[in-house]
Automatic annotation (TrEMBL):
InterPro entries from the UniProt entry: AB_hydrolase_fold, Esterase-like, Mycobacterial_A85_antigen
Organism of origin: Bacteroides sedimenti
Domain of life assignment: Bacteria
Record PANTHER family: DIACYLGLYCEROL ACYLTRANSFERASE_MYCOLYLTRANSFERASE AG85A (PTHR48098:SF1), ENTEROCHELIN ESTERASE-RELATED (PTHR48098)
UniProt-recorded name of the protein: Esterase family protein
Stretches of the chain forming a coiled coil according to its record: none
Short name of one Pfam family: Esterase
Signal peptide location: none
Amino acid sequence: MNKDVQVVVIAPNDAKTAKKANYPVVYLLHGYGGNAKSWIGIKPNLPEIADQNKIVIVCPDGKNSWYWDSSLNPAYRYETFVSNELVNFVDNHYKTIANPKGRAIMGLSMGGHGALWLAIRHKNIFGAAGSTSGGVDIRPFPKNWEMSKQLGDYETNKQVWDEHTVINQVDKINNGDLALIIDCGEDDFFLKVNKNLHERLLEKKIDHDFITRPGAHNAKYWNNSIDYQLQFFKKFFAR
């Protein structure tokens, strides 16, 4: 994209110096209006979590890109950046498990969409994916969150919108391709689209964890939900 992208890396204390250990990596994607520092603001004890669990946590700035490679804006190629350039950089600079068995990706809201979008389309890179309060079907919200800047307006570009929504990517995976966890608060405006994604995954007989719990679309919910997502990934890494 010919620009610098800020990334926050949260690593165990010995992640650069350990001679024997290689660590799994969790990529955390922020939501609309967020930045690379969003997750550390929501969950200030991420450094302790990374050190205790011996994982590297990577938080890139995805702007308001929805983590697509935009066909309209060459300055927005965040699918390529996260799934290729960023992963390669992290593996070259930290002691990581450099294969899908050691990589997970998750995000909130726009980042929940982004995590599933990237994992499904790059299952050779990521082995596990999670969405919390994710915008997993963008089409009910055609006027929101600058999506039309990346895809064009919905009325005249319906095929493009159909092709860029997570729920329509499910046919690209088979059961066992990815370890998946999806959660959403009962008071969240994305609850219905998350339930629809859950039903689509059930139809395809794709194993996944699906959780709803009391809560809304806010930092209080995400501060709690990330604990369960990271526990899910910890079990995945231990396999």
